[in-house]
Design a protein that fits this description.
heterodimer; A: about 625 residues; mainly alpha; two-stranded antiparallel sheet; B: about 110 residues; alpha+beta; 6 strands
């Protein structure tokens, strides 16, 4: 039975790859149709969009978008041309001309303006790539943390899972993960005046599937999945899209490597290999498309009046909570390590073999987080990156102090492994709200995460009895959920104006909600409302605001955003856990998920990897509890 | 010839070595060992779960010496290794039949 299943999967996988490879050119043809007019982007709205949000950019040289010059599709994707009297362009020097009104301006098509616009996109691409490289380095941090918290006898095995997830997951993401996640990106809800920060090439990601009526721009009312960019085929051969692929790929790797810590020291390596492909292809990509790829959770602001829709700046939910939920499902399916629970049902400690390695890895992760959060602007020209970086470090610091105090009170000693969990808990929690809170909010929510993580570790160890070798479920799953929710609690309205296609205007204690459908009528109405005319205008465009936003500087709290965040958390928990449970049950039939009993007792290094991690040292295994 | 096996606290090794060297004792063998005596181990908490440290790390010093030096050597070890607290260790003394230096094939006390 098992052999047959293996054969079938093998054949099916091969068939899939072949089909996809041939399908490449077909996607290229599809792309030609809807490109001309970018979906929800409104060319006319070049003037008064909120500064903090992705501001409308001046025209751009075509060579930074998808043209034949950079191997692209040859589709004309030049930026909309702003009015010649646009004050933003006339402030520059160059060869001036005199317009109809007698003002001296610089032509929108002048070389100078084109170069400035080109540089802006270039800065954004460089920023996104470099921060993506930082996030890639976080793989080293995860490998060190997880290996250090395991026993020496399985160190090479744990390290190898962290190592190979990079290659396995990346190929899975290249095959279909990226297409599922971002294929529908251009149809997502956006603010008035939005421009894709990495260049117009992103507008090629315009094909998806969903429920409800199809809007004029080509998106479904409830987007469920993207369907463009399989194998990064020729139809999406563009600098903007390749930049986005790199950045989101390394994020996927973070999700993928979280369960390897929870399930360490007992996970059959062959089962892990097929997991590696699966995780790159499906769970992160599907759930991520709902929040980041313009799917139904992002649309919940437009559809159901849930604030700005699900807001998850850098992935407390999409990356960390998703990984934590996969870890819960995996931990349930694989069972605890031998000896972890005695006959009395009480948990036994299995101390890690290298605490300095754990702490070094934690610092590498904290360093990588400066790519994770500030990079998620996808724009180096968005000066918000300074606030994001400071909030990130503050929340991590506050959380480590929160854990320190909690551990002193609860057990009397701080336990370095818990301190590391604490710092990471704060970083995970600030990941969603990093752009939307002030420093007080960052410190507060970080500190709370540092307390939560301690009790969460105790809960999963003693009550839920899911053996989590490194605390991955608590750090990433639970504190990730806390991070998503905290956007709806502490966001202070200073950033994210018009996110999710919803503009929340405020004046004299009253809210007004404007949904950006891309029509000129809505844009004109918006421009009038935020104009200076005291009768019709004077409204302020407020960004993402939480329930307690007023305490942190917003003019008024907003409950509707919390609804979106709560929905997001519930959907993530239910969908990812069920989806992953199904996977682990099925994959268990192909390759057993659990290593052989005698291999686990001996340590997985030699039986499964063929080499010891530390052959020059005698491994005493004094930290293993007796198997009852 | 006598052999002294002294189980001592790890951080006392240097003092014991100096004290024995002052008695013109030429060689010793040192081993990192774990064990417990009457005090047994103690419990610690790791990530919220208790575990007992049953085998505490100690250092075992082995010295083979002429019987004439035995009393002084024991006195020297005791004087420097004693802290007065539980876990100071033990000294075992036994008789050695013979000893041979491999390089010269000398035997007996000459080989020490």
């Amino acid at each position: 039975m098992t052999k047959l299943l293996r054969k079938i999967t093998g054949v099916a996988a091969a068939a899939c790859v072949i089909c996809m490879a041939f399908a490449g050119p077909a996607y290229a043809q599809n792309a030609a149709a809807p490109a001309g007019s970018p979906a929800a982007v409104s060319p006319a709205a070049a003037s008064p969009a909120p500064d903090a949000a992705a501001a409308p950019a001046p025209p751009q040289q075509p060579d930074s978008t998808a043209t034949a010059a950079n191997g692209g599709t040859g589709i004309d994707l030049t930026w909309p041309v702003p009015a010649a009297s646009d004050p933003k362009t006339s402030l520059t020097t160059g060869a001036p001309t005199i317009d109809d009104a007698g003002k001296t301006t610089i032509g929108a098509n002048s070389e100078l303006v084109k170069n400035v616009a080109h540089n802006k996109v270039s800065i954004n691409i460089v920023w996104t790539l470099v921060t993506g490289f930082l996030v890639m380095f976080m793989q080293a941090g995860f490998a060190l943390v997880e290996t250090g918290l395991c026993r020496a006898k399985s160190a090479a095995h744990v390290m190898a899972t962290n190592f190979m997830i990079y290659g396995l997951g990346m190929l899975g993401f290249w095959v279909c993960g990226f297409a599922f996640m971002f294929g529908n990106y251009a149809n997502g809800p956006v603010n008035i005046g939005w421009q894709p920060s990495l260049g117009q090439g992103l507008m090629l990601l315009n094909h998806g599937w969903g429920l409800g009526e199809l809007s004029s721009s080509g998106g479904y009312k409830y987007g469920l999945i993207g369907l463009k960019g399989f194998f990064l085929s020729p139809s999406v051969f563009d600098t903007a899209i390749f930049t986005l692929f790199l950045f989101e790929m390394v994020f996927m790797d973070t999700t993928a490597t979280i369960p390897t810590g929870c399930m360490a020291e007992r996970w059959d390596f062959r089962n892990f290999i097929i997991y590696g492909f699966w995780v790159g292809m499906f769970p992160y990509a599907i759930y991520g498309s709902w929040v980041w790829g313009g799917g139904w959770l992002a649309q919940s602001g437009v559809n159901w009046n849930f604030g700005h829709g699900a807001v998850d700046f850098a992935g407390s939910g999409v990356v960390h909570m998703c990984g934590g939920m996969i870890a819960i499902a995996g931990g349930l399916c694989i069972g605890p390590r031998l000896g972890k629970y005695g006959k009395d049902g009480k948990a036994r400690a299995i101390p890690g073999h290298d605490i300095p390695m754990v702490m070094l890895g934690t610092f590498i992760l904290a360093f990588g987080w400066f790519g994770f959060n500030p990079g998620s602007t996808l724009a180096g020209t968005d000066n918000r990156i300074a606030i994001i970086a400071v909030n990130t470090m503050l929340a991590g610091a506050a959380a480590s102090v929160g854990t320190l105090l909690t551990m002193y009170v609860v057990t009397g000693k701080p336990d370095p492994s818990m301190l590391c969990n604490g710092l990471l808990a704060g970083l995970v929690a600030i990941t969603a709200p990093c752009a939307f809170v002030n420093s007080a909010g960052a410190v507060l929510l970080g500190f709370i995460a540092g307390v939560i993580v301690v009790f969460s570790v105790f809960f999963f160890e003693r009550v839920a009895k899911i053996d989590d070798a490194v605390g991955a479920i608590s750090v990433h799953g639970i504190c990730g959920a806390w991070g998503v929710l905290s956007v709806g609690l502490f966001a202070n309205g200073s950033y994210g104006q018009g996110w999710g296609g919803v503009h929340k205007l405020f004046k004299d204690g009253q809210w007004m909600r404007i949904v950006n459908d891309g029509s000129k009528a809505v844009i004109d109405q918006y421009n009038t409302l935020i104009g200076t005319d005291p009768k019709t205008g004077g409204w302020t465009d407020i960004g993402v605001t939480g329930i307690f936003g007023k305490i942190f500087g917003a003019p008024e709290g907003d409950f509707s955003q919390f609804q979106a965040q709560l929905t997001d958390v519930c959907v993530c928990a239910v969908f990812v856990i069920l989806f992953s449970l199904a996977w682990f049950k099925i994959s268990n039939l192909i390759f057993p998920i659990r290593s052989k009993r005698e291999d686990e007792i001996a340590g997985l290094d030699v039986p499964e990897m063929g080499v010891e991690a530390y052959p020059d040292f005698q491994i005493t295994d004094k930290s293993s509890p007796a198997i009852e | 010839m006598k052999k002294i096996e002294a189980i001592i606290k790890p951080f006392k090794l240097e003092e014991v070595k100096v004290a024995l060297s002052e008695l013109q004792i030429e060689g010793m063998t040192v081993t990192e060992v774990r064990g417990f005596g009457r005090q047994k181990g103690h419990t610690e908490i790791y990530r919220g779960s208790e575990y007992s440290v049953d085998f505490l790390p100690k250092i075992k010093v082995e010295v083979v010496l002429p019987e004439s030096l035995l009393k002084d050597a024991i006195a020297a070890i005791v004087s420097v290794a004693k802290t007065g607290k539980i876990g100071d260790g033990k000294i075992f003394v036994s008789t050695i039949d013979d000893a041979i230096r491999i390089r010269t094939e000398e035997s007996g006390e000459k080989s020490l």
